[in-house]
Amino acid sequence: MLFESSAEFAAALPSHCRLLGLDVGEKTIGLALSDVMRQVATPLVTISRSKFTKDMDALKAIITEHKVAGLVVGYPVNMDGSLGPRTQSIRTFVSNLQKHTDLPILFWDERMSTMAVSRTMLDADLSRARRAELVDKLAASYILQGSLDRLNAML
Questions:
Q1: Residue 9 and residue 34: Cα distance in Å, rounded?
Q2: 3-state secondary structure 61-103
């Protein structure tokens, strides 16, 4: 089930469950996990992308291990609100993902997520190598936290 509305997504979720945030890039997938009360997003891991089946195996293992009940996928909308080529790439990824899971999936506008995270890491004076290591899972956490905040504001 794919949702673009937070309200519809929330209605499809059981109470007290974890959500997994995904920042899907061409080379990596950053992941973040919520607590069961859906208050806080925590950076989890970054998966190096390879074949789709291997990516799915890694995702399924994390979903099972953490008892995830829903997915929040960063949706790369252009700054002017238009949809670009990366948006289609994410739609294709999610379409393929839906063949492997019946979890509810929410698209979340990820405008500025990587930039915000990168700026924070620069302010923290992290090395370039350390920033590269962290950026994807921190972006996933930023995306997931935005959706958690919206879901909690609806309560």
A1: 15
A2: HHHHHCCEEEEEEEECECCCCCECHHHHHHHHHHHHHHCCCCC
Residue 100's CB is within 10 A of a number of other CB atoms, namely 15
Domains of the chain: total: 1
- pLDDT-based confidence at residue 77 (cuts at 50, 70, 90): confident
pTM over 0.85: yes
Segment 30-55, tens digit of pLDDT: 999 999 999 999 999 999 999 999 99
Which residue has 């790439």 as its token pair?
89
- Domain holding 111, by residue range, is 2-153
Distance of CA 92 to the CA centre of its chain: 15
Domain CATH number, residue 49? 3.30.420.140
